[in-house]
Design goal:
α11 packs parallel to α15. The protein folds into two domains: 180 residues, MFS general substrate transporter like domains (Growth Hormone, Chain: A, Up-down Bundle), CATH 1.20.1250; 219 residues, MFS general substrate transporter like domains (Growth Hormone, Chain: A). It is built from 17 helices and no strands.
Length: 486
């Protein structure tokens, strides 16, 4: 049996299949990414069924994103300590049970709480799924192919989310977008236990609980403060208190991380210019993309009175172009380096957002579809390039934590995007259109600023990268917390 393990009884145990282990890891990552976008087209039905306001709808999305973002780095460390397979299966089980709770929720509070638990499960799954691929495919070429399939499957799920959500809501109602996760979750858990090998366990790996609590508190405080501006204004005690809490938590977080022997977020990484610039651009990209998905979903259904399926189809041109644009980005990067697609992608997305600022309730479909296409292409061009920039300028032993930092930044950007767009599109149909124009203008300006940062920051990085990489080699965390979504 080629050295396959046998049961204690002496009967041969069936052989593990690397392909089925890859299927399990890809399945987990795919439904996690699907849940990032599938909910958008169900928002109007959720609002009607549970009698929730716009602020609560934002938390339906952001409870998931914030839990995912704030726990991503610690989940990688937990996988190092307990073994990736155990953590992956636990995360998948948590995600699946929470999906059932989402589908059965009878109030906004129950749904938001269940979405937060979903985010916890997602955070446990993602870094562990990548570690499982490393254990399943130890040969570099096979591993690279497996990771490509893993990331490509997730990108496909992310793009298909609005259309899949529209079909499920039309056919089964809004709970269907959550309950569909259950059979996939059960299949993924069984495949993992049956076919995925475990990774080595490092008992010396410690969790940075103080840093974790402060990071989560800072993210929640910032998101709450931004969301509250739409209802209370920038000068209200609630908003000012939220920003003050965010600033205090950030200051304490820096103090704690500097004192930790095994910090959750090694601050030395940000001495590498490519990491700091790419993380900032990651925030900008997800800010615009996630915010647009939230705002335009309400626009299509509340202003243009489209069905959930109609809203999903309206998003299809933008999301379908992502895969092709990712391939183009790879070709451009191979020929010209990562700066060109990073700058050009953000510039194109900025033009798309600014063009959307001209739309109205009765605008022709082309006036809406063309700018959204430009945004989709632009974001898809830029996302692979920021990952490439990090990989090119970080020591090989620090790639896992650097990727985790980058993707945590992207999730933070997504939560802020939903918060800003949500605070501006609340109200009547007319107020929603006016607020949407302001929101897309802000996003367009952020994209343009991101292009300037890439142009200036990464040009300057060229003369500092060697020294920066040398200075950052005191990083002590080795968790593979990567979530490379296209």
């Amino acid at each position: 049996m080629h050295g396959h393990p046998t049961c204690s009884s002496g009967s041969p145990r069936f052989s593990r299949s690397p392909r089925l282990a890859l299927l399990a890891a890809s399945l987990g990552f795919a439904i996690i990414c699907l849940d990032v976008t599938v909910v958008n087209v169900a928002l109007e039905r959720i609002r009607q069924a549970l009698h929730v306001d716009a602020g609560q709808l934002e938390w339906v999305l952001n409870a998931y994103t914030l839990a995912f973002a704030s726990l991503l780095l610690s989940a990688g460390a937990l996988g190092d300590r307990l073994g990736a397979r155990r953590v992956f299966v636990t995360g998948f089980a948590v995600f699946t049970v929470a999906s059932v709770a989402c589908g059965l929720a009878s109030s906004a509070a129950a749904l938001i709480a269940a979405r937060a638990v979903q985010g916890v499960g997602a955070a446990l799954c993602v870094p562990a799924s990548l570690a499982l691929l490393g254990a399943t495919f130890p040969e570099p070429k096979a591993r690279a192919k497996a990771v490509s399939i893993w990331a490509g499957t997730a990108a496909l799920a992310l793009g298909a989310g609005p259309l899949v959500g529209g079909v499920l809501v039309e056919r089964f109602g809004w709970p269907g977008i959550f309950l569909i996760n259950v059979p996939f979750g059960m299949a993924g858990i069984w495949l993992t236990l049956a076919h995925a090998p475990d990774t080595a366990r490092h008992a010396s790996r410690r969790l940075d609980l103080a840093g974790q609590c402060l990071a989560a508190a800072a993210l929640v405080a910032l998101t709450y403060a931004v969301m509250a501006t739409g209802r209370h204004g920038w000068a209200s005690p609630a908003v000012l208190g939220g920003f003050a809490c965010f600033a205090a938590c950030c200051a304490l977080f820096i103090v704690v991380e500097r004192a930790q022997r095994q910090p959750m977020l090694p601050l030395a990484l940000f001495r590498v210019r490519a990491v700091s610039v790419s993380s900032l651009i990651g925030v900008v990209l997800n800010f615009g993309y996630y915010g647009l998905m939230f705002g335009m979903s309400l626009f299509f259904q509340s202003v243009r009175h489209a069905s959930p399926l109609g809203a999903g189809l309206a998003f299809l041109p933008m999301t379908a172009i992502v895969a092709a644009a990712n391939l183009v980005s790879g070709a451009l990067t191979a020929r010209f380096g990562y700066r060109l697609p990073m700058i050009a992608g953000q510039a194109l997305a900025a033009l798309g957002f600014l063009a959307l600022s001209l739309i109205g309730a009765g605008s022709r479909s082309l006036m809406i579809t063309a700018p959204m296409l430009a945004i989709g292409v632009g974001v898809a061009l830029a996302v692979p390039s920021i990952n490439t920039a990090v990989l090119a300028h970080v020591d090989a032993r620090d790639i896992g934590i650097a990727s985790g930092v980058l993707n945590t930044a992207r999730q933070m950007g997504g939560a802020l995007g939903v918060a800003v767009f949500g605070s501006l599109v609340a109200g009547t149909a007319g107020e929603m259109v006016d607020g949407l124009r302001v929101a897309v203008t802000i996003a367009g300006g952020a994209m343009a600023a991101g292009a300037v940062v890439a142009l200036a920051g990464l040009r300057a990085a060229g003369s500092h990268d060697a020294n920066d990489a040398h200075e950052a080699r005191d990083v002590s965390v080795r968790s593979p917390a990567e979530c490379t979504r296209g």
